[in-house]
Amino acid sequence: MVKSKKEIFKAILVLMPSVVLLAVFVYGFILWTFRVSLSAWRGIVPDYTFVGFKNYIKVFQSVRFQTDMWNTFYFTILLLVFCISFALMLAHVLDKGVKFESTFRSVFLFPIALSFVVTGVVWRWIFNPEVGINVLIHKLGFKDFNFGWYTQPLRFLNFNVPLVSLLIAAGWQLTGYIMAMFLAGMRAIPQELRDAWVIDGAGELQAFWFVVLPILKPVILSAGILLGHMSLKLFTLVYNMTGQGPAFATDIPALNMFETTFAANRYGEGAMIAIALLLFVAVVIVPYLYSQFRSRGRAA
Predict the structure, then answer these.
(1) In whole angstroms, what is the distance from residue 188 CA to residue 215 CA?
(2) What residues contact residue 128 under an 8 Å CB cut-off, 6+ apart?
(3) What are the tens digits of pLDDT across the range 278-289?
(4) Can you give the pTM of this predicted structure?
(5) How do residues 54-83 score in pLDDT, each as one tens digit?
(6) Are 82 and 167 in contact (CB under 8 A)?
(7) 33, 123, 199, 200 - which has most CB atoms within 10 Å?
(8) Domain spanning 60-299 has what CATH number?
């Protein structure tokens, strides 16, 4: 049905405030941040002297930023593997209709209701070498166990071992939500299809591998995009749990940007890190959005 010019004008009038606000407070500030990243602004007084990509070269050559990149790479890969594998396992068990399913589902979903501030504070205490899990292990008889979960700069093949503590905390909070996504996908599988693989004699592992997983591919992709996006912006958890850690063992670009900008007052370099973060997130999100728009266009 063709809409009248009056209806189109009304629609534009309704959308205009949101468009203006989005243009100013999102894209406008992105452009302003990019401009600051090309300036010599250091200190409280703004200095917009153009220095080109000097800040980019300086930051990319810094040991801290290079460590941040490796930390982000390892953390993202491990978070994807940890959350998706455990969430698939939990969803598969709950899909079988275990007793007290609603209780288990609520317990697994509870962490996502907490903020990362609470998660960071709680897990910081749990992994505290003086009062946390180490004390429990000592009481079990292992008196010589004195592992510094996030206080020792241990490395293994360029991997900072203290990241494991962050991985456990983030995985604890996010796995339940990913499990709910997978469980919803499994519950959407028609009963006729379930009966068909039973009649064909497919075992539980075969049915899961050749039937359930292919059906869940779009859900797994969405979960991967969500987790990848979260891992790039996991500032609150790191800030409240470990900070940058010893020798930047648990440092991430978002924390680096915050401390560079608001603690060291190096606004040009901080803006550069913010632009780099934006590009990293875009690399994850844009291909996914493009594929979604293409699939919807074909369906239409």
Answers:
(1) 10
(2) 134, 149
(3) 888 888 777 777
(4) 0.84
(5) 999 999 999 999 999 999 989 999 999 999
(6) yes
(7) 123
(8) 1.10.3720.10
Q: What is the residue whose two structure tokens read 């930023």?
A: 65
Residue the block writes with tokens 């594929």: 291
The domains of the chain are located at 60-299
For residue 37, give both structure tokens. 């990243």
Token code pair at residue 111: 């962490």
Residue 142, phi then psi, degrees to nearest 5: -95, 80
Question: Kindly report the CA angle at 192 between 189 and 196, in degrees rounded to 5?
Answer: 105
- Among residues 233, 258, 262, the alpha carbon closest in space to that of 244 is found at 258
Q: Are 225 and 104 in contact (CB under 8 A)?
A: no
Of 120, 25, 76, which Cα lies nearest the Cα of 230?
76
Beta bridge partners of 159: 156
- Under 8 Å between Cβ of 97 and 185: no
* CB atoms inside a 10 Å sphere around CB 76: 20
Enter the tokens of residue 194.
């379930």
For residue 4, what is the DSSP state? P
